[in-house]
Amino acid sequence: MQSILIIDDEPKLRELLARILKLEGYRIIEAESLKAAESILQKEDVQIVLSDVRLPDGNGVDFCKSVKERYLLTEVIMLTAYGTISDGVKAIQYGAFDYLVKGDDNERIIPLISKAFEKIKLQARIKELECKVYKKYSFDKIIGDSEQIKQVITLAQKVAQTDATVLLNGETGTGKEVFAQSIHHASKRNSKPFVAINCSAFSREILESELFGHAAGAFTGALKNKKGLLEEADGGTLFLDEIGEMSHDLQAKLLRVLESGEYIRVGETKVSKVNLRLIAATNRNLQEEIKAGNFREDLYYRISVFRIVLPSLRERSADIPLIAQFYLDEFTVKSNQKVKELSEVLKEKLKQLPWKGNVRELKNVMERMVILADGESLTENDLPLEYQLDHGSNAPLHSLDAVEKAHIQRVLHNTKGNKAEAAKILNIGLTTLYRKIEEYQLA
């Protein structure tokens, strides 16, 4: 029930106010002094405090400041028979929801309390969403118990507390953007935007426009002014993935941003200012790229103030079963399956595979396995056929026809004989599937 604490040293006024609010369905707690109110707040869950300003043991306005500092989701409404502008201003500055004069504002109390509860509900929802965002992007979300990943997380946690530029090195699929987001959300900039862009996804001209923005008429099709990602990330973090793909002239412009915080929109001459943190990532060896003349040495030293090398999945194979189980649980819910576990043999098999695409590849394989699952446990036989072929030199080899036959059989089994669905999963035409069924005598 919604609870209100009334603090007033006049018993009759306190009891009258309590009776009115009880009729509105609120739970009322009464206190005749600040000392009694303090004791109640420590024991009870109070959402709103209605407090007189002048009390026997202190000033209600000062008490309001103390309450707002310790109970963030509690709203305070000040009541006084001797209203002054200075007290009202001070109360609002200290975080009071409102300041009312007894007698003059009686008709405002009920609507005001209703609005205060609406604010509390909204604040609680915002806090809940903030907690979800924190959990989603916190370092706790990075799965793994291996020493390799623990060392990398420790480094990332340390640099997150600073404003240092970070360079994340690692193979494709090792989670560079995940680490970038975690660093941002653990930093003092976490209330500001995290803006990400893949430098390899755009041509040189489009990437410049995306980063720096452009003025209307700067080029054909530029019909109006456009904010760039630098401006969008102001105060926050800009994540440049695959920075090794950036052209030489854009590298020079980026260097100027990092050194002076200044940039110029495409088609403008006016200098704009920006305050952001840069996190860059690449799967390339930038020092080799410098030797080849593809990357500026001065920019490299500017972005690699703090360099973190993310381990490949092969280098932390002990984490593979944990990651696989995480994705098993996620995709089981999404696909409404009943799969609960991975067999021990499958876990060992997953640890032995090369995973050239790292976590991203493992995620895709787990999704595919869950979709085709038939039972509560995944085994090595549920692996896609290209992964079932053992990579050891002593493994028995199978003809291509045998592998294809077994795969078609399994897909038909999982689709319960639905040939149209099976053809879709196999990515072949229905006519081709019928021909294969006849060829391998699967009917």
Q: What does this protein look like?
A:
By secondary structure, this protein is of the alpha/beta class. It folds into four domains: 3-130, Response regulator (Rossmann fold); 139-311, P-loop containing nucleotide triphosphate hydrolases (Rossmann fold, 3-Layer(aba) Sandwich); 312-392, Helicase, Ruva Protein, domain 3 (Orthogonal Bundle), CATH 1.10.8; 398-443, Homeodomain-like (Arc Repressor Mutant, subunit A, Orthogonal Bundle). Helix content is 47%, strand content 14%. The strands form five sheets. It has a five-stranded parallel sheet with strand order 2-1-3-6-7, sandwiched between helices. A five-stranded parallel sheet has the order 9-10-13-8-14. Strand 11 and strand 12 form a beta hairpin. Residues 391-395 have low confidence and may be disordered.
Oligomer category: single chain
**Name of the CATH first level of the largest domain:** Alpha Beta
Low-confidence stretches: 391-395
| The number of domains | 4
Total helical segments: 19
Shape: extended
What's the Cα radius of gyration?
Answer: 32 Å
Quickly give the structural class: alpha/beta
Most strands sheet: 5 strands, parallel
Helical residue percent band = 40-55%
Mean pLDDT: 89
Strand order of the largest sheet: 2-1-3-6-7
Distance between the termini: 66 Å
Number of strands: 16
CATH level-3 fold name of the largest domain: Rossmann fold
Any idea what the CATH superfamily of the largest domain is called? P-loop containing nucleotide triphosphate hydrolases
Beta strand %: 5-15%
Architecture of the largest domain, according to CATH?
A: 3-Layer(aba) Sandwich
